[in-house]
Amino acid sequence: MKVAVYTLGCKVNQYESQEMMSMLIKEGYTVTDSKNEADIYIINSCTVTAESSRKTRQAVRKFRTLHPESIIVLTGCYPQAFPEEAKLLNEADIILGNNTNINLGEHLSSFLKDKKAITDIVQHQRHDKYKGSAIDNFEGHTRAFIKIQDGCNRYCSYCTIPKARGFSRSRAVEDIQKEVCILASLGYKEIVFVGINLSSYGFDISKDITDALMTAENTEGIERIRLGSLEPDHITDEIIKKLSSITKFCPQFHLSLQSGCDRILKRMNRHYTAEEYYTLCKKLKATFPDISLTTDIIAGFPGETDEDFSETVEFAKKCGFMKVHVFPFSPREGTPAWNYDDKVPNSIKNQRCAILQDECDRIRKEFMDTYIGKTVSVLFETPKGHVQQGYTENYTPVSAISDTDLCGKIVPVRITEVNDNGCTGMIIAE
Fold first, then answer.
1. Which of 25, 70, 164, 399 is disulfide-compatible with 81, CB 3.0–4.6 A?
2. What sign does the CA torsion over 117, 9, 195, 80 have?
3. What confidence score (pLDDT) does residue 8 get?
4. Torsion of the alpha carbons at 68, 71, 76 and 78, rounded to the nearest 10
């Protein structure tokens, strides 16, 4: 039987989609693209914002309409966080949380046998251990993601992720090592370590994030090691020193900011001040040559005044981010911020997002302009016609013209100009 997976959300969700595909292939299923005709469609959902939940519900209904005879499976963060809402989606034949999607094969067999709808959502428990099955490929990606951590204990006042993902738990180093070796044997040159609160990796197993990275550092064939999103207060001087000794480590840090205003950071229940964040940025820039910093910022958090917003804009300028993901505040039921009375009107939130994004785009161009005339190493992805597209070690996007398919290869490129999409250049050698 043919199965297709449609993934919404973060890199962890992308990894878990691959995890489910690898598991089903071992059970005899054939995987196809979600745009193709399939017997089973799996929607791996996101619920980080209200819009994410809306897109999830829309996807379930869309696949049911387009494929009325197929089996529709809903899994991921949305049913885990909002099980009662998910159960109302009678277009889905099987509904699983992200705590039970490991049972997918068993539930598919059961449904194929008796055609009875299945709901299997189990609440996360404090003493849960990391669970999951290893992947044996990362279909459609040049860089392979490896999930090493799940859950979050931070409880930011706006975030529903602890409800969707449970408490922080770490994957055993031995399991990570095995998966790194498998992916290296398949020709992947870059590994991206991901998690829900990635920088808390190891807190529960007497390890730290560098123990996971060393599995790739010591694996032949892996040339680059990259980290997903990090919490800034977890990046200690000791961690910085250890990271600086890892020769394959890519000097790109995605440090979640959310606001550059201390008053708003406190109200968000973030665990640092703007000055502490900036001090970390300076330490990282002093330690890692050719570093890039990226981040997320929420505009229009309840109670955010014009002055608070201006502080955030000025702070973003000071940090000099290579890229910023700007989001309007999205209230999530069950979080403290859901009940805050001093909400910012949508029109003002959207206006602030536009102002901040314009400023961050200007900062981004200034950052990339410094590369004109320099030669950089680029890991290329699937080409679009004659245009080869890829990323440098610090995740600067680069395009170049070549008739040769360079997908999966690391090639030197001399940067000649900068446009809205990134840098363009000339390939020095193929």
1. 164
2. negative
3. 97
4. 40
